[in-house]
Amino acid sequence: MKKVITMYIHFIRLLKKQCYYNVITFFILFAFSLLFHTSGYAFELISPVQEGSLVYGKLDVGERIRYQGEEIIPTTYRAFVFALPQDAPDQIELILTRSDGREENLSFKVRRRKWNEEYISGLPPQKVNPSPVDQDRIRGENRQVGLARSIFSRHAFPVCFEPPVKDYNRISSHFGSRRILNGQKKAGHSGTDYAAPIGTNVYAPAVGIVRFVHDDLFYTGKTILIDHGYGIYSSYSHLSQINVKKNQKVDTKTLLGKVGTTGRSTGPHLHFVLSWKNVRVDPEAMIQQHPCAQRTPQKGISKENNKSENN
Ligand SMILES: [Zn+2]
């Protein structure tokens, strides 16, 4: 607005001076500035729209965004994040409300990934098919973890993650691998497994607050849950030692604990999970392809403006 007033004053001055050439130039510039103003597209996604990934975006002042019927709460800097699960639909829709109240449906094509199949055998049968008593225990533990995970805190979320284990031997299982445990088909692997000797240091991958610490969960043994803000959580399983306390603030220099093989595990490794509101995403993708390393602005296809598009 300030710009428009300044231009208007400038225009009156030019008229008084009767500089007609300048008046014409002024009109051309003014027309251009209006064009850019009305087509100014502040909303932007700044990371790939890919299944099994966190998707980051930004909004303009007064803009709001909804996904699957729910508003995504932006930070004070108008950044926002949501997640697409493994096997997300081919296309997703976001509803953008402009600062003047206009609504736009934006659709995005979801980038597909290939997922492995993994065969794991030699697990104790009671850990593949838990007994009724164990099932009760698992339900109780899931409730505790779910409760810790349900806290939605508004501390600035990270867009960059570092590997939680620096000295690992290999990644023994990738996120999303379809697992066949003792010959039975199970859901895709919920995280990344870093195989490393017992006692290897585990660090926080980004800033956050420890929300949950447990010494002996049925599946995950010694476990830590970290809240990274705006629905992003990470968890650390099968640890041999825990070095942090509930509600402790952490950053990438914080030693969380040590690699172990507690809970349902076939050998020493860290099972590392990254999620947004219970949607698991691929930690490796977020470590390697985070928006800090690769900015790929995507503005989406407005249905109103592009009715002929078929994607
Ligand atoms: Zn795992």
Keywords, please?
5 helices; binds zinc ion; Glucose Permease (Domain IIA); single chain; 22 strands; globular; Immunoglobulin-like; alpha+beta; 5-stranded antiparallel β-sheet; 3 domains; 20% helix; 311 residues; disordered C terminus
What low-confidence regions span 5 or more consecutive residues with pLDDT below 50?
32-40, 294-311
Main structural class: alpha+beta
CATH homologous superfamily heading of the largest domain: Glucose Permease (Domain IIA)
Distinct helical segment count: 5
The overall pLDDT average reads 83
SSE topology string: HHEEEEEEEEHHEEEEEEEEEEEEEHE
Measure the end-to-end span: 37 Å
Classify the fold: give the CATH topology of the largest domain.
Glucose Permease (Domain IIA)
Give the strand content: 25-35%
Secondary-structure arrangement, i.e. CATH architecture of the largest domain = Distorted Sandwich
How many strands in all? Answer: 22
Please state the overall shape, judged from the principal axes of the Cα atoms. globular
